[in-house]
Specification:
41% of the residues lie in helices and 12% in strands. The protein is an alpha+beta fold and 345 residues long. Strands 1, 2, 3, 4, 5 and 6 form a six-stranded mixed beta sheet that branches. Strand 1 and strand 2 form a beta hairpin. Bound molecules: iron/sulfur cluster. Iron/sulfur cluster binds next to helix 10 and helix 13.
């Protein structure tokens, strides 16, 4: 279709002039000079920035690259170190997969990060979006990159009527009709930038948008109707108890089992989390536990409310449980446990 090439030209021109500069990104002018993006660095940035802001993810990205300059360095690192450096980014299954994926790249790809979509899809923790993004950015493969931002732009462009999540496949196909072999990496990044900047969820800046004249939702004045989504059920609430056993500055921490939420991460002794408060069976020993406060934390599928109990220990006993350790550095704790631990101070 004639206007598709016009749309692409307009978007790429906008990207050349106004696309974001990101630490892992090679800007078009540098690309033209032959600078090639590092797929390992791009992969790290993509995995880290899912479900969070770039501002939050960027320091983690820089810390990982400086501690593990190559994918083999990451693979060779102790997994507990990787998990503790990930603490605060959430979604810890991703950190475990990150380490696993690095190991596979080291062992089966000679430490060279693949850049073709098909091979990328075979790696642990890499889904369609990440594979498409790395292949487009690093190998200029004409893949169809669709993240939440792109969904918003495309659904508005075409005033797409099917509600998500059911309509997701059709929306993806629609996005795919715009993909061409000409500068696919820049095109994908341009589209993501458009969604992340001008085509914002609540107040799109249509006046500045390179796609304004083709955008059906803009023409109809109902931009924020799209993407249409099936109404979510209210987030369920789970409750539980968590225990701070304190001795001087140090508190008792424990490594969580590999399986389950926050698996493999350092945490604090806690009861199971359920719809009604759980009994105190998980408390370390029988002590004079005192209720000192509560902590709320929102996970993807539920909100957690924890009652926080604290007791003082005279000596740093570990209840003969090898996965328990004493410590005063809370930086390796996932956010929910860090919030709890801070109450000990
Ligand atoms: S014109 Fe407005 S709604 Fe349409 S793509 Fe551009 S910013 Fe989004």
């Amino acid at each position: 279709m004639h206007h598709i090439s016009d749309m692409r030209t307009a978007l790429l021109r906008w990207y050349d002039e106004q696309g974001r500069t990101l630490p892992w990104r090679v800007r078009p002018e540098d690309r033209a000079r032959g600078v090639v993006p590092d797929p390992y660095a791009v992969w790290l940035s993509e995995v880290m920035s899912q479900q969070t802001t770039l501002a939050h993810a960027t320091p983690y990205w820089a810390a990982f690259l400086s501690a593990f300059p190559t994918v083999s360095d990451l693979a060779n690192a102790d997994r507990d170190l990787v998990l503790s450096m990930w603490a605060g980014l959430g979604y810890y299954a991703r950190a475990r997969n990150l380490h696993k994926c690095a190991g596979v790249v080291r062992d089966t790809h000679a430490g060279i990060f693949p850049t073709d979509e098909k091979t990328l899809l075979s790696l642990p923790g890499i889904g369609p979006y990440t594979a498409a993004t790395i292949a487009a950015i690093c190998a200029d493969e004409a893949t169809n990159i669709v993240d939440g931002n792109v969904e918003r732009v495309i659904s508005r462009m075409f005033a797409y009527k099917l509600a998500l999540p059911k309509g997701r496949k059709g929306l993806r196909d629609l996005a795919g009709t715009l993909v061409r072999a000409d500068r696919p990496g820049d095109y994908g990044q341009a589209l993501m930038d458009l969604g992340a900047s001008l085509c914002s969820p609540k107040n799109p800046s249509c006046d500045l948008c390179p796609w304004r004249k083709w955008c059906v939702a803009h023409e109809q004045g109902d931009q924020t109707t799209y993407p249409i989504k099936v109404k979510k059920k209210p987030t369920p609430i789970r409750r539980g108890y968590v225990y701070i056993l304190r001795c001087g500055d140090e508190i008792l921490m424990e490594q969580r089992p590999d399986k389950g939420l926050l698996g493999g991460m350092l945490g604090l002794p806690t009861s199971a989390w359920g719809e009604t408060p759980i009994d105190h069976a998980a408390a370390p020993e029988n002590r004079n536990w005192e209720l000192i406060g509560d902590v709320k934390h929102v996970f993807t599928h539920f909100e957690l409310r924890l009652d926080v109990f604290m007791a003082e220990a005279d000596v740093m006993q570990v209840d003969e449980k090898p996965h328990r350790v004493w410590g005063s550095d809370f930086s390796g704790l996932p956010t929910v446990f860090r919030k709890v631990a801070e109450l000990s101070r």
